[in-house]
Amino acid sequence: MPSVVPFTQSPALSGKDPLLRPLTPADVKSCTVVERAFPEHEQCSEEKFIYRLNQTPELCLGLFIWEEGKEQLIGHIIGMRVPTKEITEGSMHMPENWRERPSDQAYIVDGQLIGNDPHGKTIAIHSVVISPQYQGNGVGKALVKAYIEFIKETQVDTDGIVLIAHDYLIKFYEGAGFVNHGLSACRFAGETWYDLVLDL
């Protein structure tokens, strides 16, 4: 798949020349802005975006439109690797002093993975977000489906995709092919989540 591809699935973006491309560390500021669509306690910090976009840029996809002659990020999906078919509390965080640690080694604390496992066979989605002005009209679902195709077409070495979601979003993800595995053991941000799994 080319590094930049048209995004044509959503009529809501007609005339805005939407496109998809893998994210890079240069997109951190834009990701931080889009992430504000989440409640503050659930938002990914700028430092965590720096970590994730340095560790697994190939698993992170941005949805852009053209405005005033430049790219404008309006949505993203941020993925990392985990060794199991579930997202744990530790995988939602990042290792201390990660810049000084070998990027090809998993960081384990008290038996729990912290952040990315470079050898993990499962993609853990840590963020799916669309800017508020583009929500509610199919853009989010189109982005999730495009991400799944992106992973398949780029032949990423994986056996599936997992994420955690609030109960009111279960049907949304089931519509994209995920299966609800019930309540998650992860209590990220002090919230109740459900495990959603897509086998590939």
Automatic annotation (TrEMBL):
The keyword Cytoplasm does not apply. Residues 18-200 form the N-acetyltransferase domain. CDD domains: NAT_SF. Keywords: Acyltransferase, Transferase. InterPro entries: Acyl_CoA_acyltransferase, GNAT_dom, SNAT-like. One of its GO terms (molecular function) is aralkylamine N-acetyltransferase activity. GO terms for cellular component: cytoplasm. This is N-acetyltransferase domain-containing protein. The lineage of its organism: Eukaryota, Fungi, Dikarya, Ascomycota, Pezizomycotina.
